[in-house]
Amino acid sequence: MSLMQLENVGFYYRADKWVFRDVNLTLEKGQTLSILGKNGAGKSTLLQVALGLATPTEGEARLGGTATTRLSPAKRARLACYLPQTETVNVAYSVTDYLLMGRTPYLGAFSSPRAKDRLRVRKVIAEMGLEDFAGRPINELSGGEKQRVGFARALVQGSPLVVMDEPTSALDMGNQMRTLKKMRELTGEGFAVVATTHDPNQAFLLGGKVALMEKGKPVKVGAAAEVLTSSSLTELFGTPIRVRWDDQLHRHVCLGAERIEER
């Protein structure tokens, strides 16, 4: 059974302006999907449609084999967790309490977190190196700290499908690499991971499938090495880009190839 499936999915805000059409994707346990595209290409909208947070104009989106239109919010949360680009939290919850909320889909309407829920939170805090601000109000954290906490909450939730919208956009390079490494580990543990990014190097590092989005054109889906070529990326981003194999890293890398004159 597929964890996520899009079948002939299309979406528009206006009938004369499709964001995307004819998208066909299937994601199984242990697989990764990186979604690349320029700003405004529809990456975030595609995630929302895939999760049932927006209704497709045509086609069908399914989670765990069930159409998203038939899923309750609690059932959806048990199937998939979602980390948006930005999440505004106006209440001064501590980081620990905020992480505990990730267990809500598994609790009754008037139930309190169980001992095993609190244990899971402590484990994730240690695993993700959040001890220094576990007691701080989340609304006082920096953008990068909030992004790290958001990823940790996805781990606390523990849904088999982890969907993230630009999960490293506010992170320094060290925390970017630690996050990407953890994403790879999740697939090794049987989770499926979906992430949007502007950086082809992240898609090469994660491996798995890639969906290349360009407004007004069909979405290209395939293995990273097949979809992310020098020519396809140069055309997509409108600047010279070179993709080459790195023998030391044992993966493809992407480099900007436009000459910038020194002054």
Automatic annotation (TrEMBL):
It comes from the Bacteria. Keywords: ATP-binding, Nucleotide-binding, Translocase, Transport. Residues 4-240 form the ABC transporter domain. One of its GO terms (molecular function) is ATP binding. InterPro entries: AAA+_ATPase (IPR003593), ABC_transporter-like_ATP-bd (IPR003439), ABC_transporter-like_CS (IPR017871), P-loop_NTPase (IPR027417). The keyword Endoplasmic reticulum does not apply. SUPFAM superfamilies: P-loop containing nucleoside triphosphate hydrolases. Pfam families: ABC_tran. Gene3D superfamilies: P-loop containing nucleotide triphosphate hydrolases (3.40.50.300). This is ABC transporter ATP-binding protein. It comes from Winkia neuii.
